[in-house]
Design brief:
The chain is mainly beta. The protein is built from 3 helices and 27 strands. It folds into 2 domains: 159 residues, Jelly Rolls (Sandwich); 131 residues, no CATH class.
Length: 351
């Protein structure tokens, strides 16, 4: 029989499913939890204290505090912002968390480069990034890049409002805003070609998190019931050693093309509809009727990244597919195709 233990860590409430469990239910009340830290990653405060190395232990929650800076040297880090939004920091970079409240997350890029991967942006949450005097508010799910030197904001997909030099303008996919002298200028860029090591690492991370979502969503459905689970939250998956995201009400697709399921829709992965002979024709649903009978919805986001993935990384599944694999974001496991409809992750708030 499964045993649940209630844990408390800072602003997070955690339920740990012991023994054969696949997921913890982590309801984060604040942004700033360190999901992954690779290499040389440090906390720095403004009081001149020595940098503190970030080395999360298994099943330990480590979070940034308001006013604290996260700095990398030869390392990279992934930070949870609002539910469904991941900040990924490249090498030789620094970001300060000014406000961790989910209704008004504010951070500033001080050095280097950062990517924000927004799978879903709930209506009550907001994310604002400061860069060289400009303020960038993310308005839709999508993929956003920030460079400190020279200052530049890129929107691979999604939409952001940028306020700089007393003016406000909207940036959409394939557009960038960069500081040229004393003026901010809007330019086009090729979202399929303008990639680098941080982009490729972020793509791999998105795939691993999607793998962890499959087992976490299934366990959540088994414990709370498919209709009783409150989505739009983080779930800690101890098999993988990091948190994944479970959407609000329906399957969503990340900017990198991976599917994130809810307890209600994850059965599409385990019990896909299949042809079967019957007197009335039609399909054998192959599993619980509520899963197989879900109506199909529009599939893919308009942006399709073309960057190659390393041999050890999971290949991006087709729309409607989910992946299951090994622990810890290492080598990818096999893919299991799902055939239900998918709601594109590039939609606006309240999806």
């Amino acid at each position: 029989m499964r045993e649940w233990q209630h844990l408390s860590a800072g602003a997070a409430a955690l339920l740990l499913l012991a023994g054969s469990a696949a997921a913890q239910h982590a309801v984060s009340a604040r942004a700033g939890m360190i999901n992954v830290a690779e290499g040389d990653v440090f906390f720095v405060d403004d009081r001149g204290a020595a940098p503190q190395r970030v080395e999360p232990r298994p099943n330990e929650l480590v979070s940034m505090k308001d006013g604290q800076t996260l700095r990398t040297e030869e390392g990279r880090a992934e930070v949870l912002l609002t539910p469904g939004a991941f900040l990924r920091l490249g090498e030789a970079s620094a970001v300060r968390l000014d406000s961790s409240r989910l209704s008004s997350v504010k951070l500033e890029l001080l050095e280097g480069v950062a990517l924000i991967d927004v799978v879903e942006l709930l209506r009550e949450n907001s994310i604002l990034v400061r860069l060289a005097g400009a303020e960038v508010e993310l308005e839709k799910a999508g993929l956003y890049r920030f460079d400190a030197a020279p200052p530049r904001v890129r929107v691979f997909s999604g939409q952001a409002e940028v306020r700089a030099a007393g003016q406000a303008q909207t940036l959409k996919g394939g557009r960038e805003l960069r500081l040229e002298g004393a003026q901010w200028a809007v330019r086009k860029f090729d979202a399929d070609k303008e990639t680098d090591s941080l982009y490729r690492w972020s793509k791999r991370r998105s795939g691993y998190i999607a793998m962890a979502n499959v087992s976490a969503a299934r366990q959540a459905g088994a414990f709370w019931g498919a209709s009783g689970f409150q989505g739009g939250t983080w779930l800690w998956n101890p098999y993988f050693g990091f948190a994944t995201y479970v959407p609000w009400s329906d399957t969503v697709m990340s900017p990198f093309g991976y599917s994130y399921y809810t307890p209600r829709t994850v059965y599409q992965v385990y019990y896909p509809p299949r042809s079967a002979p019957s007197f009335g024709g039609g399909f054998d649903r192959g599993g619980p009727s509520f899963a197989g009978s879900m109506p199909a919805r529009s599939a893919a986001p308009s942006y399709r990244p073309a960057a190659p993935v390393s041999a050890s990384a999971p290949a991006a599944p087709a729309a409607g597919a989910g992946s299951v694999g090994s622990r810890g974001g290492g080598a990818a496991g096999g893919s299991v195709g799902g055939t239900g409809g998918v709601r594109a992750g590039s939609g606006g708030r309240g999806n």
